[in-house]
Amino acid sequence: MTAKGNLRTGGQVLIDQLLIHRADLAFCVPGESYLAALDAMHDVRDRLRLVTCRHEAPACQMAEAYGKLTGRPGICFVTRGPGASHAMVGVHTAFQDSTPMILFIGLIAREMKEREAFQEIDLKAMFGHTTKWTAEIDDAERIPEMVMRAFQTATSGRPGPVVLGLPEDMLVDKVDAVDCAPFQPVRPSPSAADMQRFRELLAGAKSPVLLIGGGGWNAQAVADITAFAEASEIPATVSFRCQDKFDNASPCYIGDCSTSTAPALVERMKSADLVIVVGARLGEITTQGYTLFTPPVPRQKLIHIHPDAEELGRVYQAALYINAGMPEFAAAARAIKPVEAGTWRAGTKAARATFEAGQKPDHPKPGALDLAAVVEVMRRKLPADAIMANDAGNFSGWLHRYWRFTKYPSQLGPTNGAMGYGYPAALGAKLTHPDRVCIAWVGDGGFLMSGQELATAVQYGANVIAMVVNNNLYGTIRMHQEREYPGRNPATTLVNPDFAAYARAFGAHGEMVTRTEEFEPALDRALKAGKPVVMELRIDPDVITTRTTLSAMRAASLAKRQ
Fold first, then answer.
1. What is the pLDDT of residues 261-293, one digit of tens each?
2. Cα–Cα distance measured from residue 537 to residue 515, given in angstroms and rounded to the nearest whole number
3. Which end of the chain, N or C, is less surrounded by CB atoms within 10 Å?
4. Residue 117, φ and ψ in degrees, nearest 5
């Protein structure tokens, strides 16, 4: 990609840096503000695959999914103004999910700044609080330096998103820029003193619990932390949408600590005398609204391990803080001498038995289609390494509760609760791992926030199976309405299309499932379709969680008011 002599355009320098840093897939909605970068991509299309999307939010979410699955920054390009605004959803998801990602935004020419030129925005004001670093590249000679820093920043410590602005005139400047070498992520390691104190606290406990989550994991780290827990028979739970970070088949796994946490697990967390938090942020969802541990000094002894020193002590004071990356800590934990589990062995077995019992539905749910039975069929029919991309909404509880994640990475879910995430995340997964089955588990409301990306799926042969759970409601909000204002529920009823027909209109395969016995043959057809699939799963609107119904919630709420 050399122009005359050593001169290259800014666009060419930029794309050369992506290749140096091993980028192989990028997502975009094209814009005139970065035409020179698009032109440079033409020359390397055999090495850098560019996927054109229909909306910037899904494009950014596809890149976020790539980052989650690979540990390398997902790459996304959008244009200024409206494009950047749409992409904010994906950036916020990457920030709260600790996912490495780099968003490149085409900008106005440098000479037009501060005139409110066409689609002009202030990147730092817009993205500064939801990224690890936001900057504009005003000098084409500095592209290698700033792109290297972007990769370094996105992957080091607590992973996260970076935004780089690209003035359109900068991209056409010709410069003799010096390339940087590939990035090298930097993660802290626990000291010998840290691990000695860690083991001492564990040995002194009577009822410890391991809580795992956050970003920065890899398959070896997951294997190491599972082996550590099993060696000392420590019960292990995971934070919101981090279920693939501990083998769910392990006898130490006791369920997820998230939006649909089993009551027995909540009580176990509250009664533990030592909680070892590995990688998770102790935020609202994981702590059940800051009730599992009382801030700022919890009743339980707390050990908090996190790759970002600024996260340690942010809400809770711990008995021990360890600033470490997940692979580094997990390897060190596996290497320590196991602690005799005599005082808590029975508790671990009991907690596992309670989890196993919770895998069975509590009672029959209204309607002809049982989502618990649907997930049971999926567990029988799908490979263990199937990637589950879960959207935001109450329907997600069935996947959280009944699916077992035994391979890493295999779970994609927005911990920031971004609706519309599931389908584009599944597309990003399929384009990253075309040999794996990729399922988008989505609600009717969330699917129509990004369902136009069916066009992208068909165009690129991303044969994702979307399972659209349709109850004609914004179900989570209706649940809150019935809890707080029973019988008064404006704004949450939806009128939907025939989703199977919608799929066929794009050239995809469509299925309609209204009864439990229809699901398995429909899934068989979907797996053999050889094209993107949408399976509409029509459920009774009264079915709102895995444990209760809307009518039961309404009755309970009204009874409290009498």
1. 889 999 999 999 999 999 999 989 889 999 999
2. 9
3. C
4. -65, 175
Neighbours of 86 (CB within 10 A): 18
Domain-located, residue 180: no
Question: HSE on the CB side for 178, CA within 13 Å?
Answer: 1
Instruction: Give tens-digit pLDDT for 315-358.
Output: 999 999 999 999 999 999 999 999 999 999 999 999 999 999 99
298 and 389 assigned to the same domain: no
Residue 533: enclosing H or E segment and its boundaries?
strand 533-538
What CATH number did the domain enclosing 148 receive?
3.40.50.970
Token output for 437: 């089955």
Q: Helices (DSSP H) in 204-277: which residue ranges?
A: 219-232, 263-271
Please check whether residue 54 lies inside any domain of the structure. Answer: yes
**Count: domains in the chain:** 3
Structure pTM? 0.96
Nearest to 421 by CA among 440, 435, 402: 440
What 3 state SS string does 31-59 have?
CHHHHHHHHHHHCCCCCCEEEECCCHHHH
Tell me the pLDDT tens digit for each residue of 471-504: 999 999 999 999 999 999 999 999 999 999 999 9
| 334 and 409 assigned to the same domain | no
Q: Is the peptide bond before 497 cis (omega within 30 degrees of 0)?
A: no
DSSP string, 102-121: EEEEEE--GGGTTS--TT--
Give backbone dihedrals phi and psi of 436, rounded to 5 degrees, phi first.
-105, 150
Asked if residue 196 belongs to a domain, the reply is yes
Residue partners of 439: CB distance under 8 A and separation at least 6: 378, 382, 386, 387, 388, 389, 426, 464, 465, 466, 467
β-strands 174-175, 8-9 pairing: antiparallel
Which residues on adjacent β-strands are paired with residue 253?
Answer: 236
Domain range for residue 202?
192-358
